[in-house]
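Researcher: Next sequence.
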Amino acid sequence: MTPFKRPLAGAGVAVLLGLSLTACGGYPTDASKKDFCGGVEDVITSTSSVSGEEPTEAEWKKLQKAYGDLGDIGTPKDISDAERNGFEVIVDTITDLDYDEAKKSFGDNDGEDSIPGVSKNDEKDAEKFFTYSSKTCADQLGG
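Model: Next structure:
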């Protein structure tokens, strides 16, 4: 599992439990590659700073802030519709879930690497976003 995906899986992929994840489309669509990759780097840094298998409440808030900042930055224009949807799903999932609700799904105990409450199509789009961000930011992230 990539370090970028860890906050999703480590947080039980931030279970949505009844939250509706419709893409609000409110995130910018004209981010520079440098700014976007800087936001991705901040997410990875926040993810890497999780000291145990599960984030503490303070670590969860840092993850939420990093994802919120990434949402504020938005995506570059060249992102596909599916990758963009994956971005929105991930940002909405992490930022909308409070710690107590997220804590219920920490550890991914069932062994599944899925996002509870999110459609299979949205999960596929999230995976496409991870692939897109890894390729787009490889130079900036040293990958």
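Model: Residues 7 and 47 are 6 Å apart (CA to CA). The helical segments are 6-10, 33-48, 57-73, 81-96, 99-103, 120-136, 138-141.
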